[in-house]
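PROTEIN DESIGN WORKSHEET
SECTION A - STRUCTURE
LENGTH: 721
TOKENS:
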């Protein structure tokens, strides 16, 4: 590379990367070096049985094959050993066809599912075969080039590492109980947040499953791998990288070693300061959540469970008041309600007035369940018991519901919020979902552990007006707790404020304000502020959002050689200057706003499109055997020639983000909504009942029920433009 061009890269990067310019220079130099050294073709014949990551020259094999080009089948003994290392003792389960593939490998044209592993056709790669080399230079990874995929206008731009299968798709998901990561992975593509060019990303997602403490080593190995294979980790020091850790103890359970110190853990467990052993009468609860980096995500509750708990009949639904059955319509259940495990060993807590009431099981829920039972189990109007045959009715008819911790994170507070029961949360030093971006004391009641004995006084002091205000705030908060894009809607919500969208909104705001501490982020970022209030945008107009990645250097046009992304995601030639672009976008936005009925008209046409294509969907997820046959049949034995390797364009740089905070343009929101699983909507075609769109609503299509009926993940309705 000529020296003057290198200097251009360096100064360009120095202007945009956060942190001292010297660090940026080093980061850019590393990035350039790494991209030069990593280009290597895959071993010849790789794609006969395997998948060739053309960006890295890495040949990935299915679980039961080995060798540089996957030609060698594993003996049953060797497979058993591999499975054991993957954490599955049962070989049949480990390599079972019942293991599903991410996004159904975008089959059949792009790939076929081999027991969880995506066998991609030549030219396609990635854990779900979504990637290929393309772009302006033909050498940059692109997402679903043949399906008209465009990144969404509102950020964040999320890069998903394509890790070796032993860290990802070889791991059996047959017994997996928490699918949040898979849903999120698919939703990143469905929602248009995914980008394939790491140089343009705001965030980097490390897609390893973190469910139990034995998964922690996988993350450690993943970071070792990606740190050598890509420049982004070193360039950011692990910042702007995130994982989703769904284990009970969050980061504490999923982290080994200091390498992930700057990685954002998106977890359910928000314990930010340790609890002392003597107070618990058990081993201490060590702090897990780090305020400056980590994010508390609500627990994903599947549609099956939502139905079981009665939550699909949520009080938040606008039709609840008129359509709910009489036995749940009034709030005439307990004043305060909790039904669930109280003693860790599930024994019945003692009611003889002697503390502790669960002597054999100290420490569970940091003793809060035990203490609440001890002080209030026989108080009139209070229901605190290990079980309740009328669980779903009480969840909907109680006034206050105790959202207790468990052996770490719990989900009762989320059930309560979703059902419309004002949640009572008790856990000193524990951040609840989306705190500090939401305040649970606003729509719920936060009680200090020391105040448990006077809980009844605290709740008694909440008058009807304050209670009504909490209930009103709860409807918006509940939308942030729901995973409506996957499960379908049940509160009359559009889904655009759902938990996955909220995660994206928080990540986008943090990318815009890298140095703002979380507790001040809403103040600093009007877009996030509006979003958390379930408002459309900072201007209140409903049609426009501040767009973050379009405009650069007004008056001078885009910097040399750099692609500028339009809100629609199409690359724009360098001849078109940024101000021109903004004018175009604003015109579009204005045009949309001008027609007051534009939104409803579009909604209508969406529903028609959805209803019209019902028949096409359904093939993707479980990849019928026919798909694989046709793939193999079509491919024959020839392997494709190695393509030219990716070399960095002059001005590519590891940060798309620092630039973002300077940018300002207007993008268009296309109002969209997810179909409804609410029993109150089954007779109302205008509400898009999910059952009319897709039969198997319990196993949603890739990308969730928001994608019901569309046929390809790239065609899912976008909730935010
Ligand atoms: C490998 O496993 C897949 C999926 O179970 C199976 O279809 C295939 O026949 C196996 N191949 C070998 C060589 O055992
Ligand atoms: C990142 O840093 C580590 C440790 O210094 C080094 O071993 C690795 O090669 C670096 N990665 C890249 C892509 O330069
Ligand atoms: C984490 O960030 C700090 C401060 O920027 C840096 O000194 C440290 O090296 C980073 N850690 C890793 C593992 O890169
Ligand atoms: C983290 O945030 C919580 C809630 O805002 C606060 O109570 C706690 O003191 C913070 N912890 C640290 C270590 O800053
Ligand atoms: C459930 O509710 C019904 C109706 O109020 C009541 O008759 C019954 O006793 C309750 N069952 C239990 C186990 O509490
Ligand atoms: C974006 O631009 C508009 C119009 O030029 C301006 O009114 C607004 O204040 C700008 N917003 C930000 C966040 O810079």
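SECTION B - SEQUENCE
RESIDUE ASSIGNMENT:
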């Amino acid at each position: 590379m000529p020296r003057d061009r290198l200097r251009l890269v360096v100064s360009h990067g120095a202007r945009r990367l956060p942190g001292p310019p010297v660090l940026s220079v080093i980061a850019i130099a590393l990035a350039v070096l790494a991209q030069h050294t990593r280009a290597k073709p895959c071993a010849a014949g790789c794609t006969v049985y395997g998948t060739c990551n053309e960006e890295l020259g890495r040949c990935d094999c299915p679980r039961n094959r080995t060798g540089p080009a996957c030609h060698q089948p594993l003996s049953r003994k060797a497979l058993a050993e591999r499975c054991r290392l993957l954490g599955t003792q049962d070989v049949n389960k480990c390599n079972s066809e019942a293991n599903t593939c991410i996004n159904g490998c975008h089959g059949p044209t792009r790939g076929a599912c081999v027991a969880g592993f995506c066998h991609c056709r030549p030219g396609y790669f990635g854990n779900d075969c979504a990637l290929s080399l393309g772009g302006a230079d033909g050498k940059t990874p692109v997402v679903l080039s043949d399906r008209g995929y465009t990144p969404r206008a509102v950020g964040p731009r999320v890069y998903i590492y394509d890790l070796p299968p032993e860290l990802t798709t070889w791991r059996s998901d047959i017994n997996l109980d928490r699918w949040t990561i898979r849903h999120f992975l698919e939703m990143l593509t469905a929602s248009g947040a995914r980008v394939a060019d790491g140089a343009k990303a705001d965030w980097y997602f490390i897609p390893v499953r973190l469910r139990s403490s034995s998964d922690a080593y996988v993350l450690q190995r993943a970071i070792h791998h990606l740190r050598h294979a890509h420049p982004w980790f070193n360039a950011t020091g692990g910042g702007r990288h995130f994982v989703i850790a769904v284990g009970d103890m969050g980061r504490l359970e999923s982290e080994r070693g200091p390498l992930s110190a700057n990685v954002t853990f998106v977890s359910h467990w928000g314990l930010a300061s340790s609890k002392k052993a003597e107070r618990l009468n058990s081993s201490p609860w060590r702090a897990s959540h780090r305020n400056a980096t980590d994010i508390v995500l609500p627990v994903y509750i599947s549609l099956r469970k939502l139905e079981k708990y009665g939550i699909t009949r949520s009080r938040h639904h606008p039709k609840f008041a008129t359509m709910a059955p009489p036995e749940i319509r009034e709030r005439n259940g307990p004043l305060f309600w909790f039904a669930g495990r109280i003693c860790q060993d599930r024994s019945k807590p003692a009611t003889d007035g002697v503390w502790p009431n669960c002597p054999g099981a100290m420490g569970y829920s940091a003793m809060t369940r035990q203490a609440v039972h001890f002080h209030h189990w026989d108080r009139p109007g209070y229901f605190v018991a290990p079980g309740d045959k009328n669980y779903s009715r009480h969840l909907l008819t109680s006034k206050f519901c105790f959202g207790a911790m468990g052996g770490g994170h719990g989900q009762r507070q989320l059930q309560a919020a979703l059902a419309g029961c004002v949640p009572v949360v008790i856990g000193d030093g524990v951040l609840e979902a989306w705190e500090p971006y939401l305040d649970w004391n606003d729509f719920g009641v936060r009680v200090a552990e020391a105040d448990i004995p006077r809980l009844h006084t605290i709740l008694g002091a909440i008058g009807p007006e304050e209670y009504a205000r909490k209930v009103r705030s709860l409807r918006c908060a509940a939308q942030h707790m729901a995973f409506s894009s996957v499960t379908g809607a049940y509160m009359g919500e559009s889904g655009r404020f759902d938990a996955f969208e909220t995660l994206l909104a928080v990540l986008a705001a943090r990318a815009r304000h890298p140095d703002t501490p979380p507790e001040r982020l809403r103040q600093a970022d009007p877009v996030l502020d509006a979003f958390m209030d379930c408002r459309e945008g900072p201007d209140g107009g409903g049609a426009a959002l501040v767009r973050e990645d379009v405009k650069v250097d007004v008056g001078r046009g885009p910097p040399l050689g750099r692609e500028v992304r339009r809100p629609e995601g199409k690359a724009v030639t360098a001849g078109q200057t940024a101000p021109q672009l903004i004018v175009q976008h604003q015109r579009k936005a204005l045009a949309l706003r001008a027609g007051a009925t534009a939104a409803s008209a579009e909604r209508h046409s969406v529903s028609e499109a959805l209803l019209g294509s019902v028949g096409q969907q359904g093939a993707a997820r479980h990849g019928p055997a026919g798909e694989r046959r046709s793939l193999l049949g079509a491919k024959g034995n020839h392997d494709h020639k190695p393509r030219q390797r990716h070399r960095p364009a002059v001005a590519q740089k590891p940060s798309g983000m620092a630039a973002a905070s300077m940018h300002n343009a207007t993008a268009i929101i296309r109002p969209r909504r997810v179909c409804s699983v609410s029993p109150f909507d089954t007779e109302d075609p205008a509400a898009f009942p999910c059952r009319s769109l897709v039969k198997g609503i319990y196993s949603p299509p890739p990308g969730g029920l928001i994608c019901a009926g569309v046929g390809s993940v790239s065609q899912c309705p976008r909730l935010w433009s």
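SECTION C - NOTES
Confidence is low (pLDDT under 50) at residues 1-28, 30-39, 538-671.
DSSP finds 27 helices and 23 strands in the chain.
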